[in-house]
Amino acid sequence: MKLAKTINLFIAALLSFYAGTSLGSAYENVMDLERWWSDANEKFVQVGKFNLAYNEKGEGEPVLFVHGFGADKDVWNRVISKIDKPMRLIAIDLPGSGKSGFIGGESYTAEIQAQRIDDFRKALGIDSWHIVGWSMGGTISGTYAGLFPERVKSLTLVSSGGFRLPTFVEGSDDPVAAAKKLVVRNRDDLDQLTQYAFYEEPWIPWFVKDSLANDLSKQADNFSQILPEVIRDITSLKGSFQKVKAPLQVIWGRQDRMMNVVVVDSIKSFRPDAETQIFEDCGHTPPIERVSESASLIENFVAKHSVADQQPVAH
Question: Less Cβ crowding at N or C end of the chain, within 10 Å?
Answer without folding.
Answer: N
